[in-house]
């Protein structure tokens, strides 16, 4: 099944970044960009991704029976391998070029994608840095956080600690109650600005692997629907894993990759 020609064409068109926006990202390691997706494209993929998540989701337990992490969202990975329509968004040149331009690299390849659907009443997403989980040699990584609808503060939009990629302590924590408590305490005694804002429809954020971020609970009666794409430098090499989570990620997201060599597995294609 192919998307409409207008949507396919739109996803190939570049988004014009200014030098000021690139500088902002390099300093703060996150940025929010408005109107990255138009209304037609957003509605189309909202429908396609929602259907795919409903088909693949196996979490049927009530929220009160889950851990803090499990309450945060329904999490499904590599939807591009499950649905050809969703693949068009994941392989979008428009988004991949944005990732490359923000990181100031020549090209990017896919690490993996994931849907993060925070249910009505779903809990917080604790403070954490993503790259704790990734066996990647450099910090040339960025996640596109793509809301499939407008996200007011009541639904739990992504929050950032601007420039907090400079903090080393806390990088050893996996996401959970401990990371929420300890990183929050650490950030309170630093000068890094806590940015919490709603997202407009079509607005997307990009954040680096080592910048600390969280999200609030979903206090609304609607599902908070988000798709994410994790990009890495096209020349990224696999490093020696430093924890069991990185070992797990190596075998799951970089199958067959060799330590010290460029990650060029069949599920890590160059997207731009």
TrEMBL record:
Pfam families: PhyH
Keywords: Dioxygenase, Oxidoreductase
Classification via InterPro entries: Phytyl_CoA_dOase-like (IPR008775)
GO molecular function annotation: 2-oxoglutarate-dependent dioxygenase activity; iron ion binding
Native source organism of the sequence: Mucilaginibacter psychrotolerans
Keyword Ubl conjugation: no
Cofactor: Fe(2+)
The name this protein goes by in its record: Phytanoyl-CoA dioxygenase
Database matches in PANTHER family: ECTOINE DIOXYGENASE, PHYTANOYL-COA DIOXYGENASE DOMAIN CONTAINING 1
